[in-house]
């Protein structure tokens, strides 16, 4: 009987120890991203998101990053999060549209005037407002919205482009984005869907003569070696987001949620800082080797924005007009608001 009692006590102690170890076990959040070390998204994950979460949680929560599509692409990362195969994922705000329209407002052309305005308004209130909607609508808790490359700019191998009419009849590479297709068409060019990986050769051989891509990505792809004319029109902001599957998020304790949001905030601030430097460095290298970098006048910019109105009309229903108007008002874009209202887009 004595031996049985001892064994019983040992079993209880063993079970208690295992329970305590399980309760104190590190919670690992698997992250899928197309970002990689050496670019702002990857570096901000490595320098801010991972160390911040580890530090504030005392090692109780950590992140296991999977960079450069090693685990999934943007849309499939979101799908894998829904399936419980990973917890965190990043994507462009455009590709978040596969799960809902809550972040569509960030993709409206000329919703922001500058990188500074985009960062400020997103950080102050817009990201939280839209992410709260996304949590209910999309099944993903959006933790932060940030830039990856700033704004798209026009680059071409044909010649100077100062106003939209200068693009008339020129074959312009576009992605599958309906907004980009509409913009390029309204500006007078011939939109040609064309693979990113073949774009350098396409510009070199004349299959297409122009592109509308964020400047650091143009620099990375060396497009300025064959496209020597650039126009700083902005318009389409390269918004990105970091999310967590809602069911898995809801399973976290309040303390764990607080840790995660603190780390996501640190990540958002770091990626903004790194992204601005990336844009500046890319533009500096491009400007040093091209024929022209043109900055339109205010009157010319009004013409570029006018070409965006149809894209707003096409996107109607995917964004709250009052929210969009508030964003524009905070940047003093009264003339653009009047144009959009006259067209029925607001």
What does the secondary structure layout of this molecule look like, with pairings?
Blueprint: H1 2-23, E1 27-32, H2 40-56, E2 61-66, H3 74-82, E3 88-92, H4 93-96, H5 115-137, E4 140-156, E5 171-174, H6 178-186, E6 190-193, H7 199-205, E7 210-214, H8 215-220, E8 229-231, E9 237-245, H9 246-250, H10 254-287, E10 292-294, H11 298-306, H12 309-314, H13 321-329, H14 334-343
Parallel strand pairs: 1-2, 1-3, 5-6, 8-10
Antiparallel strand pairs: 3-9, 4-7, 4-8, 4-9
Helix pairs in contact: 2-10
Polypeptide structure, described:
By secondary structure, the chain is of the alpha/beta class. The chain has one domain: 3-Layer(aba) Sandwich (D-Maltodextrin-Binding Protein, domain 2), CATH 3.40.190. Helices cover 49% and strands 18% of the residues. It is built from 14 helices and ten strands. It has helices at residues 2-23, 40-56, 74-82, 93-96, 115-137, 178-186, 199-205, 215-220, 246-250, 254-287, 298-306, 309-314, 321-329, 334-343, and strands at 27-32, 61-66, 88-92, 140-156, 171-174, 190-193, 210-214, 229-231, 237-245, 292-294. Strands 1, 2, 3, 4, 7, 8, 9 and 10 form an eight-stranded mixed β-sheet that branches. It is globular, with a radius of gyration of 24 Å. The N and C termini lie far apart (83 Å).
């Amino acid at each position: 009987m004595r031996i049985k009692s001892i064994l019983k006590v040992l079993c209880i102690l063993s079970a208690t120890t295992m329970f305590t170890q399980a309760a104190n076990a590190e919670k690992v959040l698997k992250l899928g991203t197309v970002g990689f070390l050496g670019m702002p998204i990857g570096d901000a994950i490595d320098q801010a998101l991972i160390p911040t979460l580890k530090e504030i949680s005392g090692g109780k929560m950590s992140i296991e990053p999977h960079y450069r599509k090693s685990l999934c692409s943007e849309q499939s990362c979101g799908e894998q999060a829904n399936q419980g195969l990973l917890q965190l994922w990043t994507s462009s705000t455009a590709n978040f549209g596969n799960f809902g329209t809550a972040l569509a407002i960030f993709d409206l052309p000329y919703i922001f005037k500058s990188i500074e305005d985009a960062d400020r308004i997103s950080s102050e209130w817009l990201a939280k407002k839209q992410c709260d909607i996304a949590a209910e609508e999309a099944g993903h808790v959006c933790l932060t919205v940030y830039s990856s490359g700033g704004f798209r700019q026009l680059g071409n191998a044909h010649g100077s482009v100062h106003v939209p009419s200068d693009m008339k009849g020129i074959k312009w590479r576009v992605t599958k984005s309906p907004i980009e297709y509409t913009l390029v068409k309204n500006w007078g060019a011939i939109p040609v869907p064309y693979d990113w990986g073949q774009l350098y050769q396409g510009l070199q051989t004349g299959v297409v003569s122009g592109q509308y891509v964020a400047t650091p990505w143009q620099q990375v792809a060396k497009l300025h070696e064959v496209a020597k004319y650039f126009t700083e029109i902005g318009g389409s902001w390269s918004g990105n987001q970091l999310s967590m599957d809602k069911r898995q998020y809801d399973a976290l304790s309040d303390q764990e949620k607080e840790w995660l949001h603190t780390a996501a905030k640190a990540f958002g601030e770091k990626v903004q800082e790194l992204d601005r430097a990336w844009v500046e460095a890319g533009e500096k290298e491009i400007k040093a080797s091209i024929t022209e970098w043109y900055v339109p006048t205010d009157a010319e910019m009004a013409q570029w924005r006018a070409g965006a109105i149809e894209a707003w009309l096409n996107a109607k229903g995917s964004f709250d007009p009052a929210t969009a108007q508030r964003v524009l008002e905070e940047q003093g874009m009264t003339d653009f608001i009047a144009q959009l209202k006259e067209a029925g887009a607001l």
